[in-house]
Amino acid sequence: MKRIVLTGGGTAGHVTPNIALIPGLKERGYEIFYIGSYNGIEKKLIEDLNIPYYGISTGKLRRYFDLKNISDPFRVLKGIHEARQILKKIRPDIVFSKGGFVAVPVALAANNLKIPLLIHESDMTPGLANRICIPYAVKVCCNFPETRDSLPEGKAFVTGTPIRQELLHGDADAGREFCEFNTEKPVLMVIGGSQGSVFVNTKIREALPELLKNWQVVHLCGKGNLDESLDHTAGYRQYEYIKEQLPDLFAMADVVVSRAGANAICEISALAKPNLLIPLGTNASRGDQILNARSFEKQGYSIVLEEENLTEESLLEAVGKLYENRETYIKAMQGSSHTDSIRVILQLIDNYS
Questions:
Q1: What are the residue ranges spanned by the domains of the chain?
Q2: How do strand 94-97 and strand 53-56 relate by DSSP bridges?
Q3: How far is CA 52 from CA 4, 17, 44, 138, 244, in A?
Q4: Which residues, 6+ apart, have CB-to-CB distance to 69 below 8 Å?
Q5: Burial 10-25 (b: 16+ CB within 10 A, else e)
Q6: pTM
Q7: Which end of the chain is more exposed for a tag (fewer CB within 10 A), N or C?
Q8: What is d(CA 171, CA 2) in angstroms, rounded to the nearest whole number?
Q9: Do domains 3-160+339-352 and 166-334 have the same CATH topology?
């Protein structure tokens, strides 16, 4: 039986594509292990699947001054040592990395032990963690064809992003029952990412009185971001995080408002949900979400409002336009040439393991 180590973490977007691969890996007879951080979001998500999980030390590599820049390199060195010991114990045939800084020690340890490394990059341009790891990879799976321009010649392989198959089989009626929504008004679903977005949460809640005149709103606001004063607002439901019912909530949603993380928008487009993307700005990121969002807007999948242009008026106008022209957006997404990402990536894993 072949063995594979999956790694990646820090946000759900660095974990869910790995989770999407697990059923196919099991069908192919792989014994699966996961290396993540000691207490990151990936630990809970993976342990719930009964996959053996190993935590290692990790540190963030920053482009700006921070006192942690002094201590974090030592955490990374400790993580490399820990990852090396774990890999020597497991003796996997291949390592598959979804990125995030927890993946750096694992990738470097795999290279040291001459274990083949496959990397997946969801964004249009690779992040710092993946850029560190790319020289040691046999192949880099990409979501956007444009990403090939940012990678060494011959390493890029356009696969798309693995989508959790259970998302495709939601029940809209079950979603309405869960949220206690009716069928008289359309449903607006708001997603701020696994950690939530204070900015998006604030703007949505400011616009709630007007939104609720025409919409029912289900709001996934992130851990610690509930507003108890809104608990009994008719037509509004807020949750920190949803797991089991997520397919049903997607199924009932008529329009989705989301940040523009690559994994999130790929799931939304696979479900053909008209969407408003509010990318994280360059003041808080390297601008990858803006590139992702503009690519989807260009393909006719989305409307994009950057943070500086998001007002109550622009928000209401955008969601109204999406709903009014929903068939156009749905048709564009359904007509896209979605790659069978899971099958293609599993074939690559077979080829190099």
A1: 3-160+339-352, 166-334
A2: unpaired
A3: 11, 17, 12, 25, 21
A4: 62
A5: bbbbbbbbbbbbbebb
A6: 0.81
A7: N
A8: 36
A9: yes
Give the CA distances from residue 113 to residues 7, 90, 91, 92, 110, in Å, rounded to whole numbers and listed in that order: 16, 12, 9, 10, 5
Q: Nearest 5°: CA angle at 8, between 7 and 14?
A: 140
CATH superfamily of 166-334: Glycogen Phosphorylase B; (3.40.50.2000)
Residues 312, 207 contacting (CB under 8 angstroms): yes
| Lowest pLDDT segment from 146-160, 173-187, 329-343 | 329-343
CATH class of 3-160+339-352: alpha beta
Q: Read off the pLDDT of residues 7-30 as tens digits, 9 standing for 90 and up.
A: 999 887 889 999 999 999 999 999
Q: Give the residue numbers of the binding site.
A: 11-13, 164, 194, 289
Contact of 78 with 89, CB cutoff 8 Å? no
* Distance separating alpha carbons of residues 102 and 55, to the nearest angstrom: 9
CA 286 to chain centre: 16
Tokens of 166: 């259970």
Distance, CA of 46 to CA of 36 (rounded, Å): 9
Rounded Cα gap, residues 261 and 123, in angstroms: 8
Annotated binding residues for UDP-N-acetyl-alpha-D-glucosamine, written as ranges, equal: 11-13, 164, 194, 289
For the segment 101-154, what is each residue's pLDDT rounded down to a tens digit? 999 999 999 999 999 999 999 888 898 889 999 999 999 999 888 888 889 988
